[in-house]
Amino acid sequence: MALDDLKSALPDYAKDLKLNLGSVIGNSNLPQQQLWGTVLACAIASRSPRVLAELEPEAKANLSPEAYTAAKSAAAIMAMNNVFYRTRHLLSDPEYGTLRAGLRMNVIGNPGVEKTDFELWSLAVSAINGCGQCLDSHEQVLRKAGVDRETVQEAFKIAAVVQAVGTTLDAEATLAANG
């Protein structure tokens, strides 16, 4: 199982990550589609080849083809939106907020899966990418749709752990290569 491979690859100093990885994925209360879509979108957003290679096959096995594509779409569109909206928010000139974005984002309106699932995956990716404006926007859509705070938090817990695992494993690989 890929999850066990990732856990065993983590160094001893990252014992908490081993435990958290098993917990946020292995003991999640999220339905399978929400869980594995979140895992896949976060694995992509982590930019860790090892994490993506280990988690993608299990995500693909647990998702319908539509959900698999939608999770990848969430990671892709948020890679763009998080940079755009984070930058617009961080600039001190508020006039940028009044300008038309002029970017295609059709997948958000028609993701091919339940809107709440796509919003949850988008929120998790936005957590990894650190876009407060996108986090607020997706959280508000989820809460208005009746999604509870525990579910929202579950998504960004997965994001936090997947990102930390990727960072740690990639750092260890670099250190080992440098010798």
Automatic annotation (TrEMBL):
Presence of keyword Oxidoreductase: yes
EC number: 1.11.1.28
Residues annotated as catalytic: C131, C134
Lineage: superkingdom: Bacteria
Alphabetical list of SUPFAM superfamilies matching this protein: AhpD-like (SSF69118)
UniProt-recorded Gene Ontology molecular function terms: disulfide oxidoreductase activity; hydroperoxide reductase activity; peroxiredoxin activity
Keywords: Antioxidant, Disulfide bond, Oxidoreductase, Peroxidase, Redox-active center
Family label: Belongs to the AhpD family.
PANTHER family recorded: ALKYL HYDROPEROXIDE REDUCTASE AHPD
Function, as annotated: Antioxidant protein with alkyl hydroperoxidase activity. Required for the reduction of the AhpC active site cysteine residues and for the regeneration of the AhpC enzyme activity.
Protein name as annotated: Alkyl hydroperoxide reductase AhpD
